[in-house]
Amino acid sequence: MERLQKVIAHAGIASRRKAEQLITEGKVKVNGKIVKELGVKVSANDKIEVEEIPIQREVPVYYLLYKPREVISAVTDDKNRKVVTEFFPFEKRRIFPIGRLDYHTSGLLLLTNDGEFANVLMHPKYNIEKEYVAKVNGIPTREDLRKLEKGVQLEEGKTAPAKAKMLSLDKKKGTSIVQLIIHEGKNRQVRRMFEAIGYKVQKLKRERYGFLDLRGLNPGDYRELTPHEVKQLRNLAVTQHS
């Protein structure tokens, strides 16, 4: 038995808070009867309707994908480019990516059919650490890296403090490999941060998300998260916020 608002959130209809609002507004039915009380528990056999539409209840699933470059972090694409869900041809459940990596960025991406879990991880207040490795044109100075660490000005405001570390450099080619650890998830954030200090990113890879990494995986490979890892991610989000 699970709380009604949690079941609605898991189905991807709304966040848990919004689900609670729908219940108190009388927009949810269980077995044909309107339920307005929070805390009602339902079983797998109960029929639930939200605004007269039956919800599809699926067993939640959680995947870690090593996204290759030139793949869209979406379920469909109007330009017929390859999308991340194509790596799961045998998965019949309606999975979707949690957040996104841009078309030219490779690395760790999570997918799920659990709407509530996705909302928790994507919410800006939860600040889960993300580690990127970037190959950039030019060789940033220590002062340049300090600018990244203090936060740089983007169109929508200043980025939060980050961690930056030079991993290697090639003086002949005039390129560098830089590690950048951030907590936010703004659109194309890492590329734009480097552009803000005068460096263009040639290649970019997300190596780590929280405590999860790509160990043992090649581009295009995926694995299912263990129940313990899912629980750890939830706990990590709560801990980072508290």
Largest sheet: 9 strands, mixed
In total, the number of domains comes to 3
Give the ordered list of helices and strands.
Answer: EHHEEEEEEEEHEHEEEEHEEEH
Query: Can you give the helix content as a percent range?
Result: 10-25%
Can you say what the CATH homologous superfamily of the largest domain is? Pseudouridine synthase I, catalytic domain, N-terminal subdomain
The backbone outline, from C-alpha atoms, is elongated
Indicate the CATH class of the largest domain: Alpha Beta
Rg from alpha-carbon coordinates: 21 Å
Low-confidence segments: none
Quote the distance from N terminus to C terminus. 28 Å
Query: What is the arithmetic mean of pLDDT?
Result: 92
Beta fraction: 25-35%
Protein name: Pseudouridine synthase
Domain RNA-binding S4: 2-65
Keywords: Isomerase, RNA-binding
Family: Belongs to the pseudouridine synthase RsuA family.
Task: Walk me through the structure.
The protein is α+β, with helices and mostly antiparallel strands. It folds into 3 domains: 2-54, Structural Genomics Hypothetical 15.5 Kd Protein In mrcA-pckA Intergenic Region, Chain A (Roll); 62-125 and 215-237, 2-Layer Sandwich (Alpha-Beta Plaits); 129-209, Alpha-Beta Plaits, CATH 3.30.70.1560. The chain is 23% helix and 30% strand. The chain has 6 helices and 17 strands. The protein has helices at 4-10, 16-24, 115-122, 142-150, 189-196, 227-241, and strands at residues 2-3, 28-30, 33-34, 41-42, 48-50, 53-54, 62-67, 96-97, 105-112, 130-137, 153-154, 157-158, 163-170, 175-182, 201-209, 212-213, 222-224. Strands 7, 8, 9, 10, 13, 14, 15, 16 and 17 form a 9-stranded mixed β-sheet that branches. The chain has a 4-stranded antiparallel β-sheet with strand order 3-2-5-6. A two-stranded antiparallel sheet has the order 1-4. β5 and β6 (53-54) form a beta hairpin. The protein is elongated. The mean pLDDT is 92.
